[in-house]
Design goal:
This protein is of the alpha/beta class and 285 residues long. It is built from 13 helices and 6 strands.
Amino acid sequence: MAKYLDKLGFTVFAGVLYLDGPGAGDLKTGGSNRLTVLQLDVTSSEQIAKTFAQVKAQLKNRGLWGVVNNAGVLEFVSDAELLPMNIYKRCMEVNFFGAVELTKMFLPLLRQAKGRLVNITSVAGTTPLLGFAAYGASKAALNMFSNILRQELAIWGVKVTTIQPGGFKTGIFGTIDQWSNQHKKIVQQLSPEVKTDYGENYIIAFKGKYAKWQASSSVDLQPVLNDIYIALIAKNPKSLYTPGPGAFFLPFIHHYLPTCLSDFVIYHLFGSGQDVPDGVKKTGQ
């Protein structure tokens, strides 16, 4: 997105988690002199404040036209009971609290410019998807925050848009090694009772989801870039854009089908091919 806006002639401030990482290096070498790469961990109040000071200094008493909150983590896909609390906290820390704190810091500049706030959420934030309890809850919180801000900031002339993409192939799933290590940590923290109830085969099956999600994700990010661009420059942008596969279909069946039918469809889309827990087999449910 930073490279795309840079090529279109925007002045871009790109926050990166690792200033010496390959992504930051790509931006530094491939961007124009209008693109500034800044160290920004959205879970660090100190780094958010420092970034704000750097941006404000470069703006020289001008407002800031747009903020795009895109930072996000998934950590792992698994049953809610199996996910440790540190994953729930990590998802909320990055996906919700980070976006909230950064938004609050930059709102004076946005209000000055009567600009745009664009928050990247997820279809998992509006539709209950098996295995996405931690991630989906954090994105649902960001959805509500965005909708309330849209109402509150209207009198200031600031427009708020939510981008709710479907499945796209980004770095959010990490690597296969990171996925395997996360799975190992999850297994190690489970109580003997939970391990017995779910069973080894059921728990191991989640390791195979990495390849499944990666294979089913679209590699063409242009639909997302187009919608963010429209949200930034349109005179009257929509409050919600849903680029990508499933971004409209899944929320539609969740909201408009009877619960028993929507649960059935989503279960077979996201739970298909997975064994049932040993404890369920024993009770014959």
